[in-house]
Amino acid sequence: MTRYARQMILPEVGPEGQAHLSAARVLVVGAGGLAAPVLPLLAGAGVGRITIVDRDTVDQSNLHRQTLFTEADCGLAKASVAADRCRALNHEVEVFVEEQSLTSRNAQSLVKQSDVILDCADSYAVSYTLSDTCLEQGKPLISASVLAMTGYVGGFCGGAPSLRALFPDAPDSGASCASAGVLGPVVGMVGAMQAQMVLNLILGLAPSPLGQMVQYDGRSLRSSSFRFDNAPEPERCFSFVSVEDLTADDQIIELRDHGEAPVLAHPHALRMSPDEVQNIGPNQGQRLALCCATGLRAWRAAEQIQPNWPGEIVLVSASTS
To answer: Which residue from 51, 82, 113, 158 has the least number of CB within 10 angstroms?
Structure first.
């Protein structure tokens, strides 16, 4: 009786499908609540190589949904602890750790080395950076998000429309799990669906999870889904870049006040409120970089100034820099 016998009995898997799983290279960005079900389910299924990207440490306030960790893990690097859990579950799986944030600088190489990319990071900047990179490289992206008692998971890029095609505008709310709260089982449900989408994709099951969105409501215990295969890509968008990508030639604006950010995101940045940004005079062709904590305020300010700014506008999320 082999480790994978119970899933290889399935006609959708069999020896050939198991071989596909063993050969797959999966990139998981974020080792928190969504990754808690994702990582053991992928490792248990025998996905051959898993790379985990996360720079954060385990915190007690997150243990109710980040169930890969214990109280004894608090203060330790999430990615390393999560990797150890995967190795303990299945020694046949190769697990690699990147204790760093996903940025515009490292996204290209990390995505290039992977067959399927999972967005488990709970960050606007990471989600759109991954989507832009996967769209450019033709790689499939399984992205999920949970807030309060609702969440979604969708399959993007890799021949399907990108995240920007479905969500072209700045989010209405800047709420996060830290500010709005979240229930652990909702995160677990959405994370499990994310893992299922990955397995469906690797096994080539129809219909493809790419171009499909699934929404889950923990209050009503109901889910719904729809396809967005024909969603058009936006003509223009604001890319997220890392602080290291900025230069002295850029017009850099720090949107956080001194109380929120005593140190500027970049030495050449000018501190302004979002309202003051609308009054700056552009230099022809100069790139404008707007910096804030999550990228959301920067995105909204960019939407306001875009009609009057002739050059490129980019966004910087200080939380992922």
So the answer is: 113
Q: Which whole-number Å values give the CA distances from 93 to 42, 67, 90, 177, in the listed order?
A: 9, 20, 6, 31
- CB atoms under 10 Å from CB of 172, counted, come to 7
Alpha helices in 24-152 (DSSP H): 35-45, 78-89, 107-112, 124-137
* First-to-last C-alpha distance (Å) of the chain: 48
pTM, two decimal places:
0.93
Break the chain into its structural domains and give their ranges: 5-227, 239-320
Beta strand 212-217 with 222-227: parallel, antiparallel or unpaired? antiparallel
In this structure, the dihedral spanned by the alpha carbons of residues 169, 175, 177 and 178, taken in order and rounded to 10 degrees, is 140
111 C-beta neighbours (distance < 10 Å), count? 22
| Encoded tokens for 110 | 């990390």
The enclosing H or E element of 15 equals helix 14-23
Residue 40 in tokens: 């053991």
Q: Contact at 8 Å (CB) between 214 and 154?
A: yes
Q: Which two tokens stand for residue 55?
A: 């720079």
Q: What are 59's strand-pairing partners?
A: none
Residue range 5-227 forms a domain whose CATH class is: alpha beta
Residue type, 152: Y
Q: How far apart are CA 78 and CA 151, in angstroms?
A: 22
The class (CATH top level) of 239-320 is: alpha beta
- Per-residue pLDDT tens digits for 152-176: 999 999 999 999 999 998 877 555 5
Q: CA 301 from chain center: how many Å? A: 22
